[in-house]
Amino acid sequence: MDVGSFGIWTFQLDLQRPPEARALARALEDQGWGALWLPEAVGRESLTNAGMLLSATERMTVATGVSNVWARSPMVAAAAQRLLFDDSGGRFLLGLGVSHQPMVEGFMGIAYEKPLTAMGDYLDKLDNAFSVAPAPDSAPPRVLAALGPKMLALAAERSWGAHTYFVPPEHTAVAREALGSAALMVEQAVILSTDASVARATARRYMSTYLALPNYTNNLRRLGWADDDLAGEGSGALVDAIVAWGDVDTVVERVRAHQAAGADHVCLQVLLPDFTAVPMAEWALLAEALLAD
């Protein structure tokens, strides 16, 4: 599968009516992005959303970043993955993740126990579903949301690669070593503003959600960040490490740092002070800087 070197990761399309979401997906494809990454949290169901956007595009990969394994049975996921992959000519990439305990237990009413074991069991059942399906030798690729060493090892062993989120380039180097030759796809949040107060306020609003989730804070602690850095909306140093802000050249420099650390693909999540706004101008500027060649 060819997802290109760069993609866009965005919540914004979930906030649009379907006709507008399709139009935005086509615009991103026209800009030259290799992949469009879709979340699954409190917005649209990821697989039907992917199908809608695949039908609106012709060349760009549509990837889930990521589909929640607690949200659907492995049999349903395998059947949907096969259909979307085949119907799109191989442009669908299924990203799978175990989500977070507050969401799984609080919103879904499911006990969040042994997430690594749960993911392994889910992959076993996915593989079994493909083994009895037509053309079992052509199971489509998948990636796992992975941060810690055990989930990265599982991604290397049981999938095409890993999708990392809310990480600095230092983590990309750790993930690259853990994954070996498996693919590494890294999300990077960016803000195209040289106003430090505006950029850091926007970044902190974004980061406050993730700093309340142990999966992310435990990962940052493994990288050496202290409790003071992780408190509230994050220290200034942590804000600058997680969110690349400044002019286009500054953002590109951060993207190159991930590549130098071993990322095969970097998907950019553009943040605006108004999180509901569509960053079309920012997407275009970044496309011009990264995709010109």
Describe this structure in words.
The protein has a single domain (6-197, 245-290), classed as Luciferase-like domain (TIM Barrel, Alpha-Beta Barrel), CATH 3.20.20. The chain contains 13 helices and 10 strands. The protein has 293 residues and is of the alpha/beta class. It has an 8-stranded parallel barrel with strand order 1-2-3-5-6-7-8-10, surrounded by 8 helices. Helices cover 49% and strands 16% of the residues. Helix 1 packs across helix 2 (46-56) and helix 2 (46-56) runs parallel beside helix 3 (74-87).
> Could you say what the CATH architecture is?
Alpha-Beta Barrel
User: What is the oligomeric state here?
Assistant: single chain
The percent of residues in helical segments reads 40-55%
In the CATH scheme, the class would be Alpha Beta
Number of domains: 1
Number of helices: 13
Distance, first to last CA: 20 Å
Q: What spatial order of strands do you see in the largest sheet?
A: 1-2-3-5-6-7-8-10
> What's the CATH topology label?
TIM Barrel
Topology of this protein?
Elements: E1 6-9, H1 18-31, E2 35-38, H2 46-56, E3 61-64, E4 67-68, H3 74-87, E5 92-97, H4 101-106, H5 115-131, E6 142-145, H6 149-158, E7 161-164, H7 169-179, E8 183-191, H8 196-210, H9 214-222, H10 227-230, H11 236-242, E9 243-245, H12 248-261, E10 265-270, H13 280-290
Parallel strand pairs: 1-2, 1-10, 2-3, 3-5, 4-5, 5-6, 6-7, 7-8, 8-9, 8-10
Helix pairs in contact: 1-2, 2-3, 3-5, 7-12, 8-11
What are the main properties of this structure?
alpha/beta; 293 residues; 16% strand; eight-stranded parallel β-barrel; globular; 13 helices
